[in-house]
Amino acid sequence: MQLRSLAALTALALGAQAQNVPDSIMEPENIYTVTYVGYDDTAMTEFSGSFKVPTFPSSTGNGITHYVWPGVYAPLRGGVLQPVLSSFTGQWSINNTWYYGTQEDAANEQNIRNYGFELEVGETIDFSMRYGDVWTSTLSVPGTNKRASASFPMISDQKAKTMRYSVFEVELWHGAVWDFGPVEYSNIKIVSTGTQTGWCHDHPWSSRTAFTASGVTPTVQNGKTICNIDSLIMQGPTG
Questions:
Q1: pLDDT band at 76 (very low <50, low <70, confident <90, very high)
Q2: Running DSSP on this structure, what letter comes out for residue 30?
Q3: Alpha-carbon span 127 to 96, nearest angstrom
Q4: pLDDT in tens, 87-146
Q5: How far apart are CA 128 and CA 59, in angstroms?
Q6: Strands (E), 53-110
Q7: Largest interatomic CA distance in the chain
Q8: Measuring CA to CA, which residue among 204, 175, 161 is closest to residue 64?
Q9: What is the rounded radius of gyration, in angstroms, for the C-alpha atoms of the chain?
């Protein structure tokens, strides 16, 4: 994920609150997002599911890079925890990553990446981001020995407890295009503090992508809202 993504996610936060983001705020044009937004006084504590590795893009070389990821995001450019599927090496690979802007954090470690593994087209990645004492992110491919898990104690308590956005995103950099077909997520589970269920529905906030969300069911258990989503498919750009 690049720094400009944090700018886009800041606009996302404004848009989720205002429901109408001016074009002058929404930059850049190469980011495509679907986002579930929790209420102001709540926070996401779990985001899990699966997604299928899409066809490898034909637009490659000269730094052209495609990023596909789900993630949890803290408001006010606070950072994003994201298992990132990347085409950078010339083959799909995935990493567990915490990314934040240096202007918000004095530390030099702007992009904390824990390498995962390479992937083949058509494989299914199970992902799980959970908050206990710290945030952890675990990746695996069923039926294989591909597995990677990382914890992120460097995320401050203030940020860790205010992850209010669950994000599905495609980023296209240095001339990359969305030529790899739809991104298909399934068996999604988002857990938020609080018992308000109104944010869990089949029409989440989105920017520049056509998508469908189906089988969306909110429940309340032990003082938390659980949003189960059978399928979410990012179909491609809308412009």
A1: confident
A2: T
A3: 10
A4: 998 999 999 998 875 555 555 455 677 889 999 999 999 999 999 999 999 999 999 999
A5: 30
A6: 65-74, 79-86, 93-99
A7: 51
A8: 175
A9: 17
Place of tokens 């989720």: 16
User: 3-state DSSP call for residue 141?
Assistant: coil
Q: Is 104 helix (H, G, I), strand (E, B) or coil?
A: coil
Secondary structure letter of residue 221 according to DSSP: E
pTM value? 0.88
List residues bridging with 237 in a β-sheet: 209
Q: Which residues contact 7 (CB under 8 A, 6 or more apart)?
A: 27, 77
* More confident: 195 or 239: 195
Rounded to an integer, what is the distance from CA 108 to the centroid of its chain? 23
Tracing tokens 């034909």 back to the chain, one arrives at 58
239 has a pLDDT exceeding 80: no
- Give CA–CA dist 81/28, Å, rounded: 20
